[in-house]
């Protein structure tokens, strides 16, 4: 059994999609990050970095429980555990490369673009421009990669596609005030429509509705999500 610690945000969405695609049995463990549950000692014992997603595989290697955190690490772990969505053996170098491109580039820059457009104080125009432009650049790289290709790596659907889908699904937030956020990236738009039409995507989205997460953006939420903005004694 996979214990899946999640919140309805892009990185956990990737894991929900893998679990629904693979058919692995799993038990949902909601972590309400707006309430600060990610900072609890119990969750920090699973992920010392205090982020979702994380999993506990109760039937890990050698029959021992295995704890895995970070969405890319989880995708690789589950794909190797099941033997699914890894592509052909010769695809491995490119699979790792594109997974890391998403993990170190597309995801973080998209996340910071969202933060500075929606959550940061007014007047930080440099930061807004910096992160939005970098998000656009990463989308362009992925768009170019998909020219003449059905999938990001090789000839089959892999965890690279799942990983990218988690963030591209939030393009409307990354590119604030854009009515058609993928219009400038036609290859990416075509690819996204194909992935988004998979039946498992609908099931993965339904995971978000299985728990009532806090939606009020009050002081508790800000302190929970951005603790580094507040002195520890405050």
From TrEMBL:
The keyword Transferase is assigned to this record: yes
InterPro entries: Glutathione-S-Trfase_C-like, Glutathione-S-Trfase_C_sf, Glutathione_S-Trfase, Glutathione_S-Trfase_N, Thioredoxin-like_sf
Signal sequence region: none
Pfam family, one: GST_N_2
This protein's UniProt keywords: Transferase
One annotated GO molecular function: transferase activity
The protein, known as: Glutathione S-transferase
Organism name: Caballeronia grimmiae
Gene behind this protein: yfcG
